[in-house]
Amino acid sequence: MLEIVHQKPNPVGEFTRRIMQTRGTCIEEVVREHVLPLLPAKSLCRFKAVCRGWNQWISSPFLAHKQAMLFQRISGFFCQKPGYGCHFIPLDPKTHGMRDPYLTFMPGPVNIRSICNGLLCVQGVDDTYYICNPVTKYWKMLPNPSFYHGPGTVISLAFEPSMFNFTENFELVCAVPVTDAGCIVFEIFSSRSRTWRASDDICFELANATFIGDACYRDGSAYWVVDCGVILVFNLKIDHYSIIQLPDGSCPNGIVTEMHGELCYVAVLREGADLAIHIYGGMDMNSRHRICIPWACPGNVLRQVRLMGCVDGDVLLVSIGDAVISHCVSTGETRMLGVDRMRGECTMMRYLPYVNSLVDVNELPELCDNLESMEFRP
């Protein structure tokens, strides 16, 4: 079992005590309305067996929408090997596990391309894009894009649960290198219109560059690391791209993540015979932290160290060989969490953080039409 230390305080207890101070409140109603939406999807699926009423409520799209909006803690990591083999590492198998961690419910072998707030964007052997939720095992196929999305194409799924996003609308932004034209085109799919469109903003500066790693989506923007020492940013709200310069001396083998409420770039650097993790933050990418890795065995080399991501804004997860290690940045505490036995000799494993969510990928037009007449209590 993987266990994360120094997590943020669980709001369930304090929130429930505050609600119970209200005169005449029924404990069952408090739990149903205010506690269940704060739980991970696996726990909710188990609680369906409590009674018929709970089964109906947990199975309803209202609870799924509310839970997707309120529960946004990272539950684990999908691990994608080169090709079409994947598995899932839960931070707590009892509450955050996955019934089908290998995505066998999909119509065929798939490669995970991007993850955002409980939804996965995967790509089949025929290059078809799918959006799915591995908890509910529901999926939908996207129409073919207008441009050819070749091997150099990178994508970012953009899904932000909110009170008014009841139909769970999402966007998929793809940075598509067009070799003949010497540019990068941004093609975007919108679930609202069910169509692809090409942005008018075209990037010519990075036409010959290679993207490294996976995208990070945050506050309306997608971020990709590029091998020439920059981060390419595309803002979906204003339909505009920009470029962030990485610090001198950093290497482009790192990841973009969110730590302490700000955008950060985390990279592993060799310093003599040792390895160190460097954390840069903010739009100016100033140095924030340096973490020595004495817990790396002498036999470990740089290519065996893989940054997995950040949990709860302060705990950094690192894979060294098949060992999974957590490091709390604020306290400096390091713990061995477990072993990823599925990694084997693979040094190109990709780790994508995942939120255990009930978000529904199926559209709910009949509910959306009546949304104004519904009573929704956040």
TrEMBL record:
InterPro entries, A to Z: At3g26010-like (IPR055290), F-box-like_dom_sf (IPR036047), F-box_dom (IPR001810)
Gene name, Swiss-Prot/TrEMBL: LOC115736365
Organism expressing this protein natively: Rhodamnia argentea
Domain F-box: 34-62
Signal peptide: none
Name of the protein described by the UniProt record: F-box protein At5g49610-like isoform X2
